[in-house]
## 1
Amino acid sequence: MSVRLKSSTADGRLQEVFGAPVAELYATATGAGAPPALTRALQLRSFLALAEEQVARVRDRVHEAMAPDRDMGELSAGDRRFDAQWLEAALDARDGYRAALGELLRTMPPPDQQFRPGRMAQSVVAAALTPSLAAPAPARAGAARARRL
């Protein structure tokens, strides 16, 4: 299944921020001129959806192994330790992606103020120093600092 079709806990927030369902956001992101924030947000959302799927898989595997109708002789402490390690890694990844996506959504400019590609006029400011204020640059001005080893 495509990651675009998997749900994530961030889908509602993305729809709120960008004003469209996630499927439409993916379609918009593939077009020319897509806002960079949208592209980054959807990349993080994709990683988040995969991490959340891993969390669910481990949880479901543990629930199945620990089901009341299972034979107690099938329980394996080693398997549960492996599940605990995998779950910890998946939860760390999920938390990291959620934090990164939250930070991106918090710091990006509002949609009506996002940068649009195009030509912008540059203003030129010119100033002339009077000869009494103009001083020669020091001999080492602009010289790269020597690296110390």
## 2
Amino acid sequence: MEQIKKEILKLNLVLENTECIEIEKKHIGRISVLDIKTSIVATRNSTCKFNECDHFALASFRDGDEQYKLPNDFMSNSSKYTRLKGNDITSIHIIYNDYTEEELYVPWGDSEYKNDYQHTYINEHGDLFLVINKNKNIEDEFPYDLEDAASLEYMLFWDC
């Protein structure tokens, strides 16, 4: 397996209503993006090129769960991870340390506002586990005891 020379700086998780939740690298325990494909769609007036993946998984540490407010929403008192339980991620923007960026669309089901393929779990410690895949869920991607400290330590720090 070839290692990438540049490092991930942060992720921007883009939601159905164009909200964006940022996860900095220091809060990422594990990320996997699999089966990336590029598509080109052309019409008479334009040509678009975009990337999509069949699988996205993220484990993010509890210290990354900061207060989250919608712009111009003074009443909201939620957190980033709680907001992600809305299961409406449409795309992932991966920003690297050289400030290049990759945008990847994730699988989406038939619902207009909710991603049928997004599975989100927050353990009792406050760590976030997220899987977007047509055929896999949290237990498939993270087959560990997500409440056990030793199990979490092993899962979140093994080298790829």
